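Subject: Sanity check before I submit

Could someone independently write out the structure tokens for this chain? I want to compare against mine line by line before I put it in a report. The sequence has 205 residues.
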Amino acid sequence: MLTVGETQEKIMKELASEAQRRRAIAWAVSLTTDTKLAPTPYELELLEHYAIGELTLDEVLYRLDSRVQHLLYRSKATGHFSPEQLTELLEQARANNARCQLTGLLCYASTGDFVQVLEGSALEVHALYKRIQQDSRHQHVQLLRDQATAERWFPDWQMAFVQADAPEFFWLVGYLEAHSNNLPLPQLPITEPHLRTLLAQFSNL
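---
Independent answer below. Compare away.
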């Protein structure tokens, strides 16, 4: 059992270690401010866990190496998609995503609007998004969120698919855009499980 003096000494060493870690983090962050190397929110979150001693540096590096990039966008189809064309689009997407180890969710409305979440390595996610921007089947492509987390939201799917009715779809998009701008939006019920997953995870970012 530690004496009072030993306990105080241990606490002071722990505080000194945290102070040293915070100084090192502040110095590293200051060097990357306003550069492409500036830490993302997920990286800052990991650094905070490291600063308070909840993660070792090796654990931080492992989580950085294994992080999942989530990219959320909306777009408008350049033409009406028939059921057969939607099936073909999904088959292509699932084949490509399986090869690139991507997962996610595609939501399509009868109005010809899309919302899609792509998740996987940042390199593969951003490469696919660039191809989507250049795809003649899409127009008015708008990025809603591009951020890393520790895990996938749709791990059991190459590409989950939801076909939403117009009111449900536009409430979903309205919520996502309002949340991005920190605006309040009345809560309306969405019962589809994949859309509920998207809303729950998006709200935590």
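---
OP: Matches mine. For the report I'm noting this point. DSSP finds seven helices and five strands in the chain.
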